[in-house]
Amino acid sequence: MMRAVLRLGREKKINRSLPVDLALFVILAAVGAFMAVPFVFMISTALKSLDELFLFPPTFIVRNPTFDNFYDLFLIFSNSWVPLTRYMFNTVFVSFAGTAGHVVLASMAAYPLAKLKIPGRNFLFSLVVLSLMFAPQVTAIPNYLTVSWIGLLDSYGSLILPAFATSLGLFLMKQFMEQIPDSLLEAAKIDGASEYRIFWQIVMPIVRPAWLTLIIFSFKGLWGTGGGSQGASYIYSEQLKTMDYAFSQIISGGFARSGPMAAATLIMMIVPIAIFVFTQSNVIQTMSTSGMKD
User: What is the dihedral of CA 43, 44, 48, 50, to 10 degrees?
Assistant: First the structure.
């Protein structure tokens, strides 16, 4: 069946003229350049000196690039009793641990809802869908009470554990797992495969586009907001706070710290963008083949 689909795709190959190809290339290049404007502007701002930052009218491209903003940023934290490397470690640990736990738990919870005939699964999934309607501000107090009740305040767990229970991951994984043919799982059971083996060796590779996409969203959320409102509520020890919280304190320095703040913003942007660049090709590739069945 797979060979027939590929052969049919070759037979129906679309033939376009050179002018059409050039027009498509120009349109896509223009859209790509437009989408890159904010990132280019952020890089340019981070490389501007303090006097160039306050030029009016402002310049889009830096005239005299300098790394003084990055030097000043590290100089600010060199005088702090908590080094910048500690904030970096906290951010990386919370982001990777929260993302890994969220992907694994969401996938393991979605599999029985999608493929096992358990009583009340439709009702449980309806609750998951209903939870997507609530803004994070609505669940902030219940989350705080829960974390406090289990004794995780002022610890990494207060940031990691709430990330495990994000309902978006469960919804996404369940919708993808429903597309897997039941006959494929039944054949594996006939061959003697256990549910755990079916889940890890058959289901998870098939839904690869789902958990790769989930990694992008989960990591981006934890990297950028892990130390914001949650850090202020759950973390009291300075040595456990993340870079997002530490960089937000630079704003309190006023306009004199506009340069270091631009450098800090660029640092916070680079890692999520790099994660997306390294994973988006896999997402596109697996998305294009996930609907094909033998």
Answer: -80
